Amino acid sequence: MIELLFATGNKGKYIEAKEILEQQIPEVRIKQLDFKHIEIRSESIEEIAAEAVERAFEESRMPVFVEDSGLFIKTLNGFPGTYSSWVAKKIGNRGILKLLKGEKDRTAEFRAAISFRSQKNAKTIIGICKGEIAKTEKGNGGFGYDPIFVPKGHKTTFAQSIGLKNKLSHRYEALLEFSKYLKAHLRR
Ligand code: IMP
User: Measured from the CA of 13, which atom of ligand 1 is nearest?
Assistant: First the structure.
């Protein structure tokens, strides 16, 4: 059995990652490291995750990963990006819709970065989900920006179709890529 820590204070993220990774790699066991860390300021989720995982590895000295994510809106030059969590608390979905009022190009994407660190390896993986910002909030599922995000090729928001979200999301994509990386590296 190979034990791997997920450094996060977010129980929901932990459960999702555990399910996906343990299903993909039966010999892996994911444990939560309840990790409180002040993130660096950066416009790049990759940089934020890569710095955080170093701190988590210093603390645990065990194979460990972190995840950082955000919503990037094209016409707002990537805002709220790495400030997504703070912006959600301050202006929420209604605030984002106001910023985009009358805007034709509503292109946006969710990005998730997973950073892994062990004694021998360091790796950062990105998952992206492309889509658009809806004109109004729709649906009750999910969290954060889910009621205003419509994935490319679909008509409903993530909050309206959570089953769809779980198979399409930036986090799901990053976790699948990460499981491929782990399969190739952990067994050596
Ligand atoms: P963090 O990675 O925990 O800092 O989360 C970043 C923020 O991005 C969250 O608080 C949400 O506001 C937003 N976000 C990230 N992923 C999602 C998602 O799957 N749905 C909706 N909002 C998300």
Answer: 3
In the reported structure, the alpha carbon of residue 188 is separated from the centroid of ligand 1 by a whole-number distance in angstroms of 34
Amino acid found at 47 = E
pTM above 0.85, yes or no: yes
Q: Each residue of 40-63: pLDDT tens digit?
A: 999 999 999 999 999 999 999 999
- Ligand 1 centroid to residue 1 C-alpha, Å: 31
Residue 166: the pLDDT is 87
Q: Which domains does the chain have, with CATH numbers?
A: 2-185 (3.90.950.10)
* Residue 105 annotated among the catalytic residues of the structure: no
